[in-house]
Amino acid sequence: MWFFAEKIVGDGIAIKPTGNKMVAPVDGTIGKIFETNHAFSIESDSGIELFVHFGIDTVELKGEGFKRIAEEGQRVKVGDPVIEFDLPLLEEKAKSTLTPVVISNMDEIKELIKLSGSVTVGETPVIRIKK
Length: 131
Description:
single chain; mainly beta; Glucose Permease (Domain IIA); six-stranded antiparallel β-sheet; three-stranded antiparallel β-sheet; 11 strands; 8% helix; globular; transferase; PTS_EIIA_1_perm; kinase; phosphotransferase system; PTS system glucose-specific EIIA component
């Protein structure tokens, strides 16, 4: 989607999922979980606002392939499951499974270092941020 590429919603990274869960990328509080369960926002304990959006145009699936695990307002730790998904189904039906993770409040960020390579969910850092 162009608004991710143009950084309209913020800067960040994209992750190619291999498992079946979207997890909390930081310790914090779940903000909004979209009605279709394909995306959520979270605010870290240090005030960083993140937006996690599974795939491209997955809103068109109207929730098919997604199951909410966490609730809005819930306190979570890094690696806690937020949404479960059916990866084989989504690989078949979604335009892409590439999952953007963007920082919504970039105006408060002094430095953003994007890391790359294979990661272990809930363990390997993918972004280093200085406020």
